[in-house]
Amino acid sequence: MNLFDLTGKVALITGGAHSIGFALGVGLAQAGATVCFNCSSEASRERGLKAYAEAGVEVHGYVADVTNEEAVKAMIAQIEEEVGVVDILVNNAGVIKRIPMTDMSVEDFTKVIDVDLIAPFICSKAVIPGMIAKGHGKIINICSMMSELGRETVSAYAAAKGGLKMLTRNICSEFGGANIQCNGIGPGYIATQQTAPLREPQADGSRHPFDQFIIGKTPAGRWGTTDDLVGPAVFLASDASNFVNGHILYVDGGILAYIGKQP
Ligand code: GCO
After folding, report:
1. 210 C-alpha to center of ligand 1: Å?
2. In 7, 118, 256, 262, which residue has its Cα 20 to 30 A from 111's Cα atom?
């Protein structure tokens, strides 16, 4: 028996056209799931379909603004009609705005909260009834180091990701009895487009100060890659984690356990 086999399961990944969402989509598909990815525009959907095809993975792409409940309900209804009831939801879509708090507009703060916290609520609310009817479900929320730690300029992102940690625990609490497991993945510092500004080489060719800082804070001594997140996601999407609920699995190379290398 392969506890990690996702054959017969329908997975939906929000923000799944690129970066972490794309890597998870490929990984869940390779584990046997029928993968649907969400994105915010037709152009992203086309790019995503091309990227998945180049990776040898057949997927279904759906455009919807995940902060808009009516759009999400329509997307879920279309997926249920065209593919099947969603067994696995990965709330991955996210934005970050690195702005000192006293310079940050309420509009910018609200935008981050809408995408990073309210959208996971909207999407989870939309798929839970189908999961209850089927008698099982898996919800995986992509949290962050900022679910546990703060740092300068990321007040909205940390507030959202801290809230997402507690939303994860609350969905566990409210729907664990319906055999729905809701867990989080907390990526450490992963080399993606989103973190590229933090790794930009300096004019003199030296490493970005933040890059040097993270390397010194990470026992693994490196930034993570999106592939580092695939195994944890397959685990949390599979029967191997049926008694794991309300847990945030940090995939961070050991950052949260480590005081940091002496300068
Ligand atoms: C930042 C980074 C982090 C990472 C990730 C860490 O500005 O500190 O963007 O937030 O993206 O979320 O888990």
Report:
1. 11
2. 256
